[in-house]
Amino acid sequence: MSIPAKAAERIRTALKRFQPILQSAKTRDVNESDTVVIIMDMLEYVFGYNKYTEITSEHAIRGTYCDLAVKLDGNLEFLIEIKAIGMELKEQHIKQAVDYAANQGVEWVCLTNGDEWRIYKLGFTKPISHEMVVNFNLLSLNSKSKDDIDTLGLLAKEGWQRARLEQHHSVQQIVNKFTIGAVLLSEPVVSVVRRELRRLSAAVKIDDDEIRTYLQNDVIKRDVLDGDKALTARKQVARAEKNQLRKQKEADISSAAAAIANEPETAETKASAEA
Question: What span, in angstroms and rounded, lies between the C-alpha atoms of 201 and 50?
Answer without folding.
Answer: 66
